[in-house]
User: What shape does this take?
Amino acid sequence: MKIDRVFDLYDELEQQRIMLSFKGGLSPDLITALLGVVERKLDRMEPDARMRKRVFNVAMECLQNLYLHNQGHHQQNGTDPQGVLMIAQGDEGWMVLTGNFMSAAEVNDLRSHLDRVNGCGPDQLRELYKTTLNNGHYGPAGGGGLGLIDIARKSGRKLEYGFVPLDGSNAFFSLNVNVTS
Amino acid sequence: MAALHLEGTPKTPTVSFDDASGLLELKGRSIPENSIEYYKPLIDWVDRYARDPRPRTTLHVQLEYFNTSSSKCILDVFKKLEMIRVTGNEVTVLWHYEQDDEDMLEAGEDYRAIINIPFKMIQIEEVNGGK
Assistant: This one.
């Protein structure tokens, strides 16, 4: 990389109002550290306490999703677990963007879960949350499908998502969560 | 049985379960990656306590943040507490939330809708502990 590119990258992050950008593998300690940065920066940058809490909550769930899903994918494939997280300030609130590799075989299930969540209004989301909370299924992460429902409740907007097929067995999943007041 | 006391960390709550007084407290943050593992001793403790409880049991929940992986475990704590009522003893959950934190109030209401225990919602200025 040419040395001038460092400034270009910095400038790009500045233009896009990126508060935090991270790429790589995650561990519980690293998640704690990143959440510490998010919390300190939000304290400085976001005057609305409710918005601060919602952005923190969404960032936390997204980081834990990245960690838990990459871990599973890593064990299956033996590749380095990589993911990306960006938190950006927008005109109406904040955006929490994440991306991670996943098994192509699981894309359809995730897509239908996301579509189901996006098909719900606020009251339906709350009912879906309660039903899922009380359904007795835990899943590897413990939440058993609650994560995206909770993220959607905190967001108040539809979840934007995309899948990039990479080869027969792998895909890249991107999620953009808008948190607006 | 003995009381259960756990110091809070940036990701786990301060726990103070006292069988002698029937006063149980869960305060701070509950956002660990391994919630099931973390909550196992808490749920086991409440399970044992519920077999021979005090006539009146109060659980204070005062959380600033909790993740979805904790939420099912917290539900399991409440379900163990429900058993106390079967034997004719009293149990109450005091659910604390910060005045601007509607989401935390809603979370308490969601549990109240699922669990057959009296819940009292208590508005406070700011949640202490956890950081």
Observations:
- The mean pLDDT of chain A is 90.
- Chain A is about 50% helix and 25% strand.
- The beta strands of chain A are 18-24, 83-89, 93-103, 160-165, 170-180.
- Residues 94 and 150 of chain A are 16 Å apart (CA to CA).
